[in-house]
Amino acid sequence: MTVKIQKFNGLFASFLSPGILFLTLPFLTLSLMASLLASSTSFASPTQPMADSIGQNLFLIGGGERPPVLLKKFVEHSGGTQARILVVTWATETPAESFAEISKDLKPYSPQKIVEVVRDPSTPESHREWLEQLQNCTGLYFTGGDQNRIMERLTAADIDLLKVRYEQGLSVAGTSAGTAVISPLMLTGRMEGPDPELRAGLGLLPLSILDTHFLVRSREERLIRAVLDNPDHIGIGVDEDNGIWVRDDRFVQPYGSSHLSLFRWNSAYKSIENIEVREGEIFDLSTAPSSVHGLR
Question: pLDDT digit string (tens) for 119-141?
Answer without folding.
Answer: 999 999 999 999 999 999 999 99
